[in-house]
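Q: Could you write out the predicted structure for this multi-component system? I'm mainly interested in how the pieces pack against one another.
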Amino acid sequence: MFTFKDIRYRDILDIENLTISPCRTTWIVGESGSGKTTLLKLLNNLLTPDQGELLYKGADMAALDPVQLRREVVMLPQSPLIFPGTIKENLLIGCRFAEKPAPANDLLAAVLAALKLKKDLGGNAAELSGGEKQRLAIGRILLMEPEVFLLDEPTSALDNGTEEMVMQKVVEYGRQNKKTIVIITHSPKMARHFGEALITLHEGKISGVEEVKG
Amino acid sequence: MDGIVEIELWRLAVAYIFLAMLLIITWKLGVGRESEIIISVLRMTLQLFMMGYLLVFVFQTNHLLISLGIFLLMQLFAIRNVYGRVKLKVGARLRRVIVFSLLLGTGIPTFFFLAVVVNVEPWYEARYFIPIAGMLIGNSMTGIALGAERLINGMMVKKEWVEGALMLGATPLQAARDVVNDAFNAAILPTINSMVGMGIIFLPGMMVGQILSGVSPLVAIEYQIAIMLGILGGVSLTVYLLMQFGYKTFFNRRSQLEIYPHP
């Protein structure tokens, strides 16, 4: 899905060779400051490498329309973005940005239920707790149904039990729908438990690529 | 009584008694601002005398190029004033947008106002062109300074939101829309508010001037209403142009956020 060839970004990332395969879940681990978020931002075209070639489905990313690309390769930032308005508006904002038709209320409610978010669609999104906001943000991008999900520590504010449940749902969804998922996590244990591929970053360089059995 | 009572020079000199009064007060209080006060009053006097003689000359010659020259000079001062008033760092691209917005946003309404609303012949008749352009530029200058400050500040404060929207596939305009709308409101609000109290809380300067020079209050209010609408047009067009092109200066060609050159 993505191929890195001699990629450099400032003094944050330096990747000689890396391939992220389609239709599977790839986990990225590494200490803070190792360049994990920068790597996702390169894939989302929020940053452009200073040097090297970054390919998406074999095409040079620099030549693709950045906005169209982001609608296919959606990124979820580390701190969930909650816009002023209702839970429903917040769920739909991704589809609105990406100019996709809005899903029906039934589907919205189903996504909330799947993420164990027992809230009314008309409720005020600002009143949710940190963990609930994070699940709302995950629900928002699931509804967009992009080809690639880039998730930056999507469950950092959740307790262990809920975290595992949400990860299970996301990974399952990816498998069933043949989606490519790249997840940053602080927990190598979780990565090994669910993952199919595991990339370890150390000071901006790849220090390990493993195949793991999910 | 028709026309205006001319102030004789010696009577004008008597008015400086107010300056003397202020100087005595500051001296007694020991505020220590005497030289500043004297300099500012001297500057005011000299500048106005110079402006008076300049305007007499300009009105007599009444030449298109001279009027346009003064128009550009006013723009230049306004642009400098905007750069000075915005306390945040204004990027080079945004500076260009400010110049362009102010020139076009005040130029078009000024021309329209003179040619259509006042219907003066020729449209560049200096006696109308210069004061009207001055009022439009002055008000638009305030609007654009407020708008630019709010725009830069908004993009900095809401950086994460804007970037978060981009991550979801938003276009730069969709991502910046809230910031842009907020800055637009902040920029035009003073103009809208100033109309509310007009004629009740205060009499606008232009109207006072016209009434003092013997114009019927009914004509004076006509001019005042027209000029307020002209100012409204000038401020909205200037600020609209600033927003329409200004937000783009925070993004590069790859639709990536460029608020800080380096993270």
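A: Regarding packing and overall arrangement: The mean pLDDT of chain B is 92.
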